[in-house]
Each structure stands twice: as structure tokens, then as C-alpha cells.
Amino acid sequence: MKLQTGLLLILPLGMLFSCGNVKKLQYLQGPFDSLAYAKINYQEPLIKNGDILGISVYSDNPEASALYNQASHAPQTPGGAAASGGATSGYLVDNNGYILFHSLGNIYVKGMTRQQVAAILNEKLKEVLKNPYCQVRYNNFRITVLGEVRNPSVYSIPSERISLLEVLGLAGDLTPYGRRDSVLVIRENDSTRRMGWMDLRKTDIFESEYFFLQQNDVVIVHPSKRKSAVDDQVTARNIGLAATIVSTLAILITVFQ
Q: Which range marks the domain in which residue 161 is found?
């Protein structure tokens, strides 16, 4: 009878702790008005110093257009992001915000969108090409994901538009030890550095300027206190195992001597 009573008391406690742990792993908790977040607050990234632009030029004369084109291919990974190793070709934005374009010289591009740069090039290339048009892309749109995710790495983003949730998906999602209430986004722009703390459990992340990531952002997922406790337990267990082995060796040496 006492055993049955004890089990009845333990079972609700186990369910309580289980529910609490599951809640910590949930994203976007609580009811929210979907209409309030219907508008997507996406702003196209602006070109910065150090960016590498892939520029493709087309015209009625393909042979003449080819003089202005550079190879800008990056191998793709199964996850949809490009591999980040190796040199990246393209037009480098220098420290003064210029690119050096074939036959056109220095062109100021810092602070512009890709479409604005394409419009400038289209106008300038009319002098040397018939009906030219350009496509401009980032060849260095990379996001670094570190911390408590399953696949921390540097991811090259072909679409040049990605949200925080999407890049965490590319990284294999958070581990059970990752804190969904403590995700840090580090953003550098020339000589300035800004940081944004994101709580993935709250729906107001959709309104954050850090929800959509920009080129070269760094995302860091912090570990929970439970991860530290587990690491301490593993360390203690390894130390205990090593002490046992040393003691056993000492006893064997004493016996055989």
C-alpha cells in the first residue's frame, strides 16, 4: 500500500518536470495574433567595405560582354548553403567603398543595394555595349553559427536572404543544452560592432532588426547551466576512472614485486 502511494506521488512530479523541460525547448511560445506579424520587416542588406560582388554582364554581343565577367562559382553543400573554403572571386569593395571595374575604373558602391549598383553599371556600359544589363550578387554572404547547435560552421547563403530561424535550421537546430532565450547576433559594419540578444521563445523576434541576418553576421547560441553540470559530471567520472586505473596498476605492481 505504501509503495502504491509513493508511486502516485512520484508520477505527477515526473510529469511536471517533463513538461517544464519540454517548454524550455519550444519556439514562439504563447498565443499571438498572426495578423500583427503578417508584414515582413525585411530590408535588403547594403554593400559594405570588404564585400565581394559577383557581377554578370549581358548584352546583344555575348563576346563583348564576356570581357567584363569573372568566374564566381562556389560548391554547394547538401544543406543548401555553399562551402566556405577557398578563394572567392569577384569585385572587392575596398576600404574607401569603391570597386575597380574593367574599363570603367573606380565605381563607388558602399551603402548601395545590389539593384542600385546594377543600374549604375547599366548606364555606364551603354557607352561600350549594346543594350547592356547587369546582375549583381554577393559572393561573400556568409553567416557563422557557433555554440550549442548540432553543426556549428560558416555557411555561405546563395539566396542572400535568410532569417535567424532558417540559419539555425541549416545548423541542425539547437542541441538540448542550447538556451533558446539566449541567442546572440554580432553584426559588424566597418569600424562599428553591434550585438542583439534574441529570445526564440518570444514572438517579438519578428520585429527585431536582427531577425533577418546580414552578410558576415555571427550567431552564438549559449549553453544552459545543465550543460555545465553534465560536463562537470563527465569530468568527475573521468577523473574517478583514471584514479581507479592508477590504483589498480599500483596494486598489481606491488603484488608482482
A: 27-34+148-223
